[in-house]
Amino acid sequence: IEQSAEARFRQGMGSQQDVLQAQLEQTRLLREITTTQMEAGTVQAKLKQLLNRSQSSPEIAVAQLSETPVAYTFDQMLEAAQSTNPDIGGAQRMVERQALQVELAHKNFYPDFNITYMYLRPDPFEYRARYELSLGIRIPVYRGRRQQPELAQAQLEQIRANRELEAKSQELTSSIREQFVVAEKSADLLRIYQEGLLPQARAELQAGLAAFQASREDFQALLASFLDVVKLDEEYWQTLSERETALAELEQTTGLSLR
């Protein structure tokens, strides 16, 4: 575009302002590239730290980012997460424990029987060996002061454990649903970019460049077409990055391998 603007200016059909604006946009792009390279260098340093590598080691090779297909439904992911998530497992065990406490508290309302059988041989020369059988019973006579408060406390703890499990389940379900929607809808957006927006914007740019070179279009319209292509291309890669990030979080939450 800059070369076309310079060619038109040399032929006396364009203005110096068009050339300067094209050079300005090119310099802005160089700034964007340099800023991105700086951010990439910072990420390289963090990755080496996480991998326990020397900062003077070779740069970590970065693979081309591509769209990952998802072979699991939302229900399958949720089922996997509920069976493997440690927070859900801990809350479930607490619910089971409190249910046992309530059961034991109920049993304290009933009499407690015990039978003891003993064989005694104190002194074989003075006393004869004998057998003793005893029956004991413990009657709960302090229901109002002991058994009832114990049962009420156990029931409250059971309710608290159930609510804690429900809250963690809701939080897990919400997190999985949110990331699943991002992954699902971003795939639709990527197809819109690939099959519609990007080809259309590039075709418009090519047509605009040809029209500009033939003096049938002004420079501002051509520049707007070019910036549309740059913006849409950035949006495409940002959408792809968000999709892959959502899939990575789903892998962490569900324990499934999505790649």
Describe this structure in words.
With 259 residues, the protein is mainly α. The chain is built from six helices and two strands, in the order ααααββαα. It has helices spanning 2-10, 16-50, 74-84, 86-107, 143-213, 219-254, and strands spanning 112-120, 130-138. It has a two-stranded antiparallel ribbon. The longest helix is centred in the C-terminal third of the chain and has 71 residues, at 143-213. It is rod-shaped, with a radius of gyration of 37 Å. It starts with a helix and ends in a 5-residue tail after the last helix.
Give me the Rg, rounded: 37 Å
Low-confidence spans: none
Report the helical percentage. over 70%
- The spatial strand order of the largest sheet comes to 1-2
The averaged pLDDT comes out at 86
Straight-line N-to-C gap:
41 Å
Category from helices, strands and their pairing: mainly alpha
Anisotropy-based shape: rod-shaped
| Strand residues, percent | 5-15%
Order of helices and strands: HHHHEEHH
Number of helices: 6
* Biggest sheet details: 2 strands, antiparallel
Number of strands: 2
